Amino acid sequence: MKRLPKYPRILGIAPSTRGFGFALIEGLNTLVDWGVKSIKGDKNAGTVAKVDEMIAHYAPDVIALEDTAVKPWRRSRRIRAVSKQISHVAKRRNVTLASFSRDYVKQTFFADGQGTKHALAEIIAKRFPDELGFRLPPKRRPWMSEDARMDIFDAVALALTFRKRKR
Question: pLDDT of 90-108, one tens digit each?
Answer without folding.
Answer: 999 999 999 999 889 999 9
